[in-house]
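Give me structure tokens for this 238-residue protein.
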Amino acid sequence: MVFTCAVFMELVSGAYSVDILQPNKRRIKNVDDMNFIPLKNRFLEGMQKLLVVDNFDSFTYNLIHLVEMIGVDFEVRRNSNLGQLDLDLFSHLIIGPGPGLPSESGDLMKLLDSWPISKPILGVCLGMQAMLQREGGELQNLSPVFHGAQSDVFQRKIGVGIFKELPQSFKVGRYHSWGFSAKAVPNSYQTIVTDAEDLVMAVKHTGLDWYGVQFHPESIMTEHGLKLLTAFVQTKSQ
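Here you go.
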């Protein structure tokens, strides 16, 4: 079996960790950023409910933990259980990582086809691959693969959307064996972040608040993951 995002048990981004083997007993520990205030204590204009798609990957628990920390209302659905969703209930969508290819991921591509273009999306790893493939992007099988690797990445366009508060270069955690070169990105998306070999690490749709990241923002190897997710949920529907 080919894995785009290998299933690894690890800690979540930055100074926060979660026991994903016991998701009902999640706990925050080693919290260094005592200035972080959950958004539930702030006014979030236009925020309804966040839909999180679980592509049968344990990393989804880590993403959910960060969402819980941010404090927004959310619902998790596996990609095999997307058929009866009332999309009017949701204002934001996170497509989580997962094994295999986008075409093998249940009803994920159908959800992308029906998701309102005015509502923000963040695709993580497999999620980004699905978004780009839907627009004609060509995935390539990588050699070497990046399973549990940390890389330096670089913003090629500074100050764009949810990336505007991030530094020009930062470190990320990667778990993928497929990816996109910059030239393989469809014209409807712009490349925002790449690695040193020009493999695409983050994109934004040219006209919509649809974002994709090839790296894992929830990984302890990724810097600024919580900041990135917080910026995403603060994005207003158009």
